[in-house]
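User
Here is a favour to ask of a fellow structure person. I am asking you to supply a protein in sequence and structure-token form. Please set it down just below, with no commentary around it:

Assistant
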Amino acid sequence: MADTPMAKVYSSSGEATGEMTLAAEIFGIEPNVAVMHQVVTAQRAAGRSGTASTKTRAEVRGGGRKPWRQKGLGRARHGSIRSPQWRGGGIVFGPKPRSYAQRTPKKMKRLALYSALSARAAEEQIKIMQAFDWDTPKTKPAVELLSAIGAGRKALVVLGAGDAIVVRSMRNLKMVRTLKVGQLNTYDVLWADTIVFTEATISMVGGHTSYDPSETDFVREDEGGEDA
């Protein structure tokens, strides 16, 4: 992207106080749609429990003797009533417990995350809070703040270690997700219409991250607002 990525800075009351220049190597690259698709697919696959299981004919109870003799009755020959063609028999090629995790290189995950952030920055949907100076956790001020800064229908709030009050204030909002900066990931960035950082967390993007969809699972299919 040719233009320098910028984001508006807001006070805790929701008033715009200025603008901040974002890192071009993170928020100003050309989004790679193919890589984002592959990483999101891997992350969603990692969220599958993989616990579906069926029994084969060797595991189904019963069928220890031949149902009728081999010849002389005019019927098809059978050796067990637990063979797959019988009602209550074993399942052929049915699901067994397995891992759906896909290996995704770190460089690919990083490129996908930067691509998603760059796409939101190009849409001017990156918002930066100076700080949250709330003394007690309350949902109403959180709703008013998100409305004041123009957060979209779905918002992702990226917080630091000392923002526990903010997490408690927003956890009842169904269309708001909160993440620690180390958990920032492509899926949640693309899910949200608006990404809200603090001045502390925006400077930490691109550093150490604990995000690894092949090992962790924080994909949520519901629209709940629980902490990630």
Q: What stands out?
A: The two ends are 31 Å apart (CA to CA). Confidence is low (pLDDT under 50) at residues 213-228. Helices lie at 24-27, 33-46, 106-122, 139-148, 164-170, 186-191, 199-202. The longest helix spans residues 106-122.
